[in-house]
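Sequence, structure tokens reproduced for absentees:
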Amino acid sequence: MIRFVEHVTRMKDDQRFKLLGNFRSYRRQWLAGDIMAGVSGCLIMIPSVIAYARLTGLPPESGLYAALVPLLVYPFITTSPQVIVGPDIAICLLMASAIGPLAGGDPKHAAILAAVLSLTSGILLLLASRLQLGRAADFLSKPVLVGYMTGAALILVVSQLSSLLGLKLARNDFFPRLLEAIRLRHQTHLPTLFFGLGLLVLIACLRRWSRKIPAAIIACVVATAISAVFHFEQYGVAVAGSFQGGLPGWAFPRVEWAEIHSLLPAAMGIAFLTYTEGILLARAFAAKNGYDVAPNQELTALGAANLCNGFFQGFPVTGSQSRTTVNDDAGGQTQVASLVMALCVALFLLFLTPLLAHLPTVTLAAILIYGGWNLVEFQAMKRIYRHYPAAAGIAALTTLGVLSAGVVAGILLGVILSLLTLIERISRPPDAVLRELPGHGFHDVSGTTGQTLPGLLVYRFYAPLLFSNCGYFSERVHNLIATSSSPVRWLLLDAQAISDIDVTAVEVLHALRAELKEKGIALKIAHANRPLRELLECTGLESEIGEASFFASVHECVEAFKGLPS
């Protein structure tokens, strides 16, 4: 933390000013939406973070402490105007498995261990930012983003089945939880279900009427009022309840070195999951709303948020899909919504804990289900499927991976599939035999259009020449020469799309040129760009092919060929 503060103080004025990038061009017309989004997000957040704290064996107030501090740190560093950070169920499940055996059922010791995890994961994230590892986010393609968002939205919806149906579901994973809900459907608490469906209809109608209406807040107020008047808890409808409040204080977590050593693998996993979920969420909403985010800066923002959280009795956090969804759905435009949310959490901790007593938990489920369903990008999926069927398959498999194996495994599956698709495209790139259109020169046209010059084969390869495709390049050249309608005298390689050539491809070109020479075929090259010429020169290929065999354009080479004696 001290090093981070020193780093900020050493910044130049313009660099330090960038930390306020989310606020420096703020518009007054955004304020109403940000306030509504902040209040709505706070209403959603309070019961959920209390539940997450209980899930990990921590005191209920620890969840609110973990939510409060990052909301005061992250907005001043992030490049995303919409992402809301906070406790996340996936991270809490990983954290619970790490601190549970060490805490021995002691909530106070569990809170200290959780703070250590937050500190350690924060340090790892800041170290990754220092090493510029944020560039790894470039491997998260649009199909992976769409697949992740769809899977995360479905997980969010299914995670609320327990509250919507009034059931106690023991399973947390998507398919087991869904199957358990189906198996126990006869135990559904009908008053809870009907009340939740009514709230869903209310929210949908309000949002359809006008997106400016704070549907989440109205739903919470209406539900709380009805619950208080009719005493819903007497009819078995679950309510949020209240607890002892108070703001968190500064505390350095002290544990044994052996415990830190035991927590380190979990901290590494949490750091990876924190960044992966955070940057995917930031990029998904950036793509949805038309702005950009800086991946490496997001590493810094998430690292600083977790580092500070560890000093204020919190636990690890990341970008919260549910709160970010509510923020976007309620009209939040900037990180002012985060600050409003932090103010609301602080006020709640100080004065308003009794207000939570009568709020039916099914209200929150209705809000999250509506927001989660709206996250599924049906139009984007249709566009991808229509134009890029293979990419649609990657998106679908990413969604399936997220649902069946978890967020990290699903994302890694999507990245691996994207890389395999890229390798396939590079190893079998498009190519063309150029043909002459009278009066327009040589162009890439279909085989039935245009004409060729007898003895001249003009070949264009649409990719860098690398180890993965040079064999395919050589094979295509041999096939084209063998199937030519007339004996080939010159092979002209249009190299305008060849920006790079590696050592394996150089050897293939050496062998190809020698083989062509034995057959009486001269190798010529047109449109060789400067980087390619430099590579050919340093490998000796330029002198081997001959300076006179390089042409500035296909037209220049064709004219030289036409001047040859018959």
